[in-house]
Amino acid sequence: MAGDDFTIEAFTLLSIAIVTIAIRITARWITAGPRNFKLDDFLMPVAGVVYGLETGAAYCVGAWWMGLANNAMTDEQRATLSPTSEEYRLRVGGSKTQVLGWSLYTTLLWLLKACMAIFYSRLTAGLINMKRRVQIAYVLIGATYIAVICSILFGCHPMHKNWQIYPDPGNYCQPAVSQIDVYVTVTLNVATDVYLISIPTPMLFKARLPWREKCELLVLFSGGIFVMAAGILRCVLIVTAGANGAQQAGSWACRETFVAVVIGNAPMIYPLCRRIARRAGWYISTKGITSNSYPLTDSEVLGGGGGNGGGHNSKSTMHSSNRKRKFKHPLSLPDTQYHDEQTILPRSEPPTVCEAGTWDEESRGSQEGIKVVRETIVHRQ
């Protein structure tokens, strides 16, 4: 009965995850267009396939191998178990499936981390200090994945000892409850998640956004905390499960990776949801003035005086304010608020170059009075 319940749960979670990935692809199609798809948009369907294989492996642990593996046996039981018996076959098959399940579980989680890092590289494009942090994330993800896979495949040597029954191969060669697999995986999993969460968090706290929107984005980008909690819980349950360790490993692997899939796709789905909610009138924006320019008042036009002196003072004020203006993160700029993924990202078009002497000609055609616009001043050394 418990096996039937898990089967229903596992394939229900798989269905929801596949739908989530499909919605993510649809959201990206609408907000960016298929020609602007990036590497993470192609890796996510691959992650969905890996998740399906992982769910299948977890199903086989219970349905095919009856939750058995080469753990939870006394030396006497190992010695008396005949290699031709049905139980022996089940335990060997279950142990092999555990090795496969661990490999798929790790591959899926690290694929999702890579997708998130690629998304952050788009989110922080143009910010040199953030670019370095994303590059470090790439190196960290690659190095930790190699370390985890090596611990799974080579922590027990030779490989066939992972499904050895007699003599007792030891804990490291019992893949369902192997402490080296559990501790190495959970430690590096949590470490990489913490680092990924730390990339967008400083931007959120420094962004000039209403607190409600800050909280929304903070929850969105801090979803890795739930993945970490699920991973730690899985680790504790496997270590303390005893004879049920094999079944617990498969069950909680599916639950943890389901949470990771949903959270990994949420940042791409969120902009589309906000767009739909705004059009339906369900979402009330809390942002204030979003215009990048505003008309000058008469006193600002005159600059406190008359004639050319006022114009000179106005331009000097503009230059000094530009020098004093603090650096603004993409999330804090009015035209880059997180209303859809396209607007949170810096513009892809090259900046317009204004030659000396053309300022007055371009501003003279305005029929609504003089406007203050953003100006970037480059000082050559």
Automatic annotation (TrEMBL):
Query: Which stretches does UniProt call biased (Gly residues)?
Result: 302-312
Every copy of the Rhodopsin domain together lies at: 23-275
Q: What keywords were assigned to this record?
A: Membrane, Transmembrane, Transmembrane helix
- Membrane topology per record: Multi-pass membrane protein
Q: Which InterPro entries match?
A: Rhodopsin_dom_fungi, SAT4-like
Main subcellular localization, coarse class?
A: membrane
Comp. bias (Basic and acidic residues) = 361-370
Superkingdom in the source lineage = Eukaryota
Segments for region (Disordered): 300-370
Residue intervals passing through the bilayer:
6-30, 42-66, 102-123, 135-160, 180-205, 217-243, 249-270
Entry GO CC: membrane
Subcellular locations according to the entry: Membrane
Give the UniProt family note.
Answer: Belongs to the SAT4 family.
Protein name as it appears in the record: Rhodopsin domain-containing protein
